[in-house]
Design goal:
Helix content: 40-55%
Order of helices and strands: EHEHHEHEHEHEHHEHHEHHH
Distance between the termini: 16 Å
CATH architecture: Alpha-Beta Barrel
Oligomer: single chain
Number of domains: 1
Structural class: alpha/beta
Number of helices: 13
Strand order of the largest sheet: 1-2-3-4-5-6-7-8
CATH class: Alpha Beta
CATH topology: TIM Barrel
Radius of gyration: 17 Å
Strand content: 5-15%
Shape: globular
CATH superfamily: Metal-dependent hydrolases
Largest sheet: 8 strands, parallel
Length: 277
């Protein structure tokens, strides 16, 4: 079965060439290196990975993601994060796609907190022109704004990172309701990366299973993708990489066709169309 990881973060140990921001979130040792990522993928039978700009380490500096994507074009799909308040950002998307083969933008709210800010709109237009995916990172406070963007960009494939940061909390049912409401937009996809990060329990995070099943039912497996949150030592300390896979191969009790779509074929269509040869 084809398995593709749509959510990994990579970190260079050469911090003079790729300097981090002040007070970065740093993984232990070489856990977040490209070398370790390639090793972990091979060990677990994963064919490729989206490498997502870790803004908590590099801010808006995408050089390491770009170099990583260009250096391993067969098995990686680079995802950049750009400042929606910088008027030069839309032009950078076109540059990153042409020079480094970047496959997606991780879209974040503008300084005013809105995901439908004019600066964000300009970035999404650049993604349409460059034919790359938009990944959206926002909370439920932006649900209405995100719905507005999904309506405005009906032909743009959009992946909702971490399902609006769904987690065990007093707002859990409200976040789930908002996530399910967005399923009406057929260009919206769900990134099912919230089980290990959102659960109040230990592995296999049974308090998240029903929520996950409801999202899969609403979006259908053809609009859902899996991601590990690599390096797991930093981002999912309650689950190893292999356990994050096992959640979907075993623990959730998914049918074979659903596993194949969520773990591989949907991601291939979105990010890896001409890769893995």
């Amino acid at each position: 079965m084809l398995i593709l990881d749509t959510h990994t973060h990579i970190y260079s140990q050469d911090e003079s060439s790729y300097p981090p921001i002040a007070k970065p979130l740093r993984p232990p040792g070489d856990a977040g290196s490209m070398t370790n990522l390639e090793r972990v993928l091979k060990t677990n039978g994963v064919a490729g990975a989206c490498i997502v700009q870790p803004s908590t380490f590099y801010g808006w500096d995408n050089r390491f993601i770009c170099d990583g994507a260009a250096g391993a074009p067969r098995w990686t799909a680079g995802v950049c994060t750009l400042n929606p308040d910088d008027p030069h950002s839309p032009g950078l998307i076109q540059h990153y796609v042409k020079k480094y083969g970047i496959r997606a933008l991780r879209s974040v709210p503008a300084r005013d907190g809105k995901i439908d800010n004019p600066g964000v709109v300009a970035l999404w237009r650049a993604c349409v022109e460059s034919r790359i995916v938009v990944n959206v990172l926002c909370d439920r406070d932006n649900t209405d704004a995100l719905a507005h963007m999904l309506e405005k960009f009906r032909r743009q494939s959009v992946v909702i990172d971490h399902c609006l940061n769904l987690k065990a909390s007093p707002e859990q049912d409200t976040i789930l309701t908002d996530m399910l409401r967005l399923a009406m937009y057929t260009n919206a996809h769900a990134k099912l990366t919230f089980l290990a990060t959102g659960s109040a329990e230990g592995y296999p995070f049974r308090d998240m299973h029903e929520l996950c099943h409801k999202i899969i039912a609403a979006y259908t497996p053809d609009r859902c993708v899996w991601g590990s949150d690599f390096p797991c030592e930093l981002w999912t300390p309650k689950a190893t990489y292999s356990q994050n896979i096992r959640l979907f191969t075993e623990e959730l009790g998914l049918e074979t066709a659903s596993k194949e779509a969520i773990l591989g074929t949907t991601a291939r269509r979105l990010y890896f169309r001409d890769k893995l040869a």
